[in-house]
Structure formats: structure tokens, C-alpha cells
Amino acid sequence: MEILDGKKVSNQIKEELAVEVAQMKARGEKVPHLAAVLVGNDGASLTYVGSKVRSCEKIGFESTLIHLPEETTEEELLKQVENLNKNTDIDGYIVQLPLPKHIDEQKVLMAVDPDKDVDGFHPANFGKMALDMESFIPATPFGIMELLRRYNIDTEGKHAVVIGRSHIVGRPISILLSQKGKAANATVTLTHSRTKDLKAITVQADIIISALGVPNFLKEDMVKEGVVVIDVGITRVPDETRKRGYYITGDVDFENVSKKASHITPVPGGVGPMTIAMLLKNTLLARERHNASNA
Ligand SMILES: Nc1nc2c(c(=O)[nH]1)N[C@@H](CN(C=O)c1ccc(C(=O)N[C@@H](CCC(=O)O)C(=O)O)cc1)CN2
């Protein structure tokens, strides 16, 4: 069994990006600039946005954090989005999800300029991705594909079972895995809360992508020998005996499923860090596309 070490691979990607940025600087070019909008003080979101900004600093990107109060209205947030769309210094930006309940997430994501949509959540980018056209690919599924590629995991003709149909992970990864091309060509089953007899499907899977957010959901008896398991679920379980007051766990019963798996991602240290690395990669792509369109 081999652990798919997302932490290690994400650090490699960040080192590669740092080299590219240094080369851009040496050529006298503008470096990529990522902005992040965070509304409210959700603990996990603060961690993720903080990590995005710190990663930018580490590799030589410019970054801007716009931290708005929980009470921010939809109109005020849309104004910020409009300003970011107009700001020619910003190459790409993200609006951290989830947003407070009083804000219509879809309306905000629709307002993002698709050319700056480094999260790949705008319908223009999502549609292009589904049509195999050049686009921004959402960072988590992009990270999963990159992890499979860097560990030389062959997906060609394999049965990939995706658990969860979210717009951020389940739906896009099912599209990417089923695409034509060297790193895809899988036969995909997208399962969800209404799927009947899930176990009958998961036991047939060569690759399982679990993106449910239910701790210990995927058990040993639900997988076959040699399966590749990608655990996207990240749940913070309250635990006062820990320094942070919680521990992090995935969807997979790691201890037992790993006995049968050929490859498996840990939580933490699997898909999560890849998400940040691929967001940075998208921001570099945005910068390069802006350079090309200004040339
Ligand atoms: N605008 C966006 N919002 C959200 C996205 C996204 O891609 N764009 N994805 C998730 C959150 N997310 C990035 O934003 C993210 C989640 C997890 C990690 C990560 O590195 N996790 C660590 C554990 C860290 C911890 O929780 O303390 C790990 O798995 O090792 C990074 C980014 C939802 N929102």
C-alpha cells in the first residue's frame, strides 16, 4: 500500500511555481496577484484563506486579503466583486465558501469575471471544462487529477466511483475522470444521497473518490482489494483534549481500508494541501493568459 502524500506533492508544486515566478521577475514581468474575499469568521475558512495568502507570500506571488464582517450584505459583496473585476492589478481571485446564509452564493459566483475565476466555479469555466476546452479547473478536482498523475496511477478504462455530487468536487471530478486524454478515460459512476445500495457499487470500484464529509463513512467491507482511495472529506471533530479543540478526519476508515487499498490519501495531508497548490497554479495560468492577451 502506498500513501498518496498530498502535502509532499503540494510542496513540490509550490517549489516549481516559485521557480517560474523567479523567472518572471528576472524577465521584468509582473508576478501573479491573487485576491481572496472572506466574509465572516468561520474557523476553517480563516485557516484556508490564511494558508492561501501565506502560500502566495512563500512562492513570490502578490496577494490581497479582503476580510469582510459576517453582516456584509449581498449588495456590498457584489460591489467588492465588481471592484475586483475592474482592478487590472489582480490576476485572479476567490470568494471563500461557504458564504453566510443571507447571501446567495450562486449570484455572487456568477458575478465573478470568468477570466479571473481561479476557483473555476463560474458557469463559463465549468461549461468549458465539461466540453474539454481551456478553462480554470476547480482546485480540488484539479489537485486529485494531479496527485493521480504524479503517482503514475493509470485511470484508463478503470471504474471510478465518486461519492457526492457537489459542484466543488463530486460533479467536476466525475467530468475530469471521464474525459478523453492520457490522464483520464475512466468509466465513472457518480453516486449521491439517493443512490440505492451504494456498497454494491463501491465494491466494484478500481478508484473511489469520497467527497461526502461524513467521518468513517467508507468501511473496509465497501471496497475491493487493490482499490485506489481518494478521501476528500475533511471534518473537524470537536475534542477538548486536543490543543486546537478539534481533530481532523476524513470520510474513510483509514486504518482498515488501507489494509486493502493499493493507494490511499491521508486526512490531513492528502487532497487538502493539493487544493491550495492548484489554486496557485490557476493563478499563474491567469497571469500568463493576461500576459498573452496584452501582448
Ligand atoms: N472558494 C473556495 N471555497 C472553498 C474551497 C475552494 O476550493 N474554493 N474548498 C474548500 C476549502 N479549501 C479551500 O478553500 C481547503 C480545504 C482544506 C484544505 C487543507 O489543506 N486541509 C488540511 C487540513 C487543514 C485544517 O482543516 O486545519 C488537510 O487536509 O491536510 C485546504 C483548502 C471549501 N471552500
From TrEMBL:
GO terms for molecular function: methenyltetrahydrofolate cyclohydrolase activity; methylenetetrahydrofolate dehydrogenase (NADP+) activity. Pathway: One-carbon metabolism; tetrahydrofolate interconversion. The keyword Repeat does not apply. Keywords: Amino-acid biosynthesis, Histidine biosynthesis, Hydrolase, Methionine biosynthesis, Multifunctional enzyme, NADP, One-carbon metabolism, Oxidoreductase, Purine biosynthesis. InterPro entries: Aminoacid_DH-like_N_sf, NAD(P)-bd_dom_sf, THF_DH/CycHdrlase, THF_DH/CycHdrlase_cat_dom, THF_DH/CycHdrlase_CS, THF_DH/CycHdrlase_NAD-bd_dom. GO terms for biological process: L-histidine biosynthetic process; methionine biosynthetic process; purine nucleotide biosynthetic process; tetrahydrofolate interconversion. Residues 4-119 form the Tetrahydrofolate dehydrogenase/cyclohydrolase catalytic domain. One of its GO terms (cellular component) is cytosol. Its EC number is 1.5.1.5, 3.5.4.9. HAMAP family: THF_DHG_CYH. Catalyzes the oxidation of 5,10-methylenetetrahydrofolate to 5,10-methenyltetrahydrofolate and then the hydrolysis of 5,10-methenyltetrahydrofolate to 10-formyltetrahydrofolate. Homodimer. Belongs to the tetrahydrofolate dehydrogenase/cyclohydrolase family. This is Bifunctional protein FolD.
